[in-house]
Amino acid sequence: xxxxxxxxxxxxxFTFTTENSLEEVCxxxxxxxxxxxxxxxxxxxxxxxxxxxxxxxxxxGSLKSKGGGLYDKIVNGHQFAKxxxxxxxxAQMKKENxxxxxxxxxxxxxDKNKSIPTFVEGQALQNFLDxxxxxxxxxxAF
Length: 142
Hints:
Elements: E1 11-17, H1 22-25, E2 33-42, E3 45-54, E4 56-57, E5 63-64, H2 69-76, H3 85-95, E6 100-109, H4 117-132
Antiparallel strand pairs: 1-6, 2-3, 2-6, 4-5
C-alpha cells in the first residue's frame, strides 16, 4: 500500500471473485471521488494490476463528478471492451486464471482532503513505474 494513500480517511476495500456480482460486493461511495487500486490476490501474495480514478476538479476548485462516484466508476466504467467492469472483469479474470481481486478505494477530494483524483492516481502509477519499470498490467496507458 502506498503511504500517500494513508491520509485519506474515507476509504475501504472489498474482495471480488468471478462467483460474485461486482454490483453487490462493491462498497465504494456513490457520491465521492477519488482513486481505486486493484490487486490480484493469491493467498497472502498480492500484485497491483490496476489503478483508476474518478472526478475532475474545475477551475474554481469545485468537483465535477459523474453520478455514482467511485462505485459507478468501478462497477460500470469501461475496461477491456466497450462494456462495464461488472462484465469485463469476470471475463478477464477467467482469461488470466485470476480467482480473487482485492479492490481498495480512497475518497481523495472532499471537505477534509483536496487531492485531485488523477494526481493521486498518477502518484500511485509513478511509484509503481519507479519500482517495476512498467505500469500495472491492466493499465493500458497514463
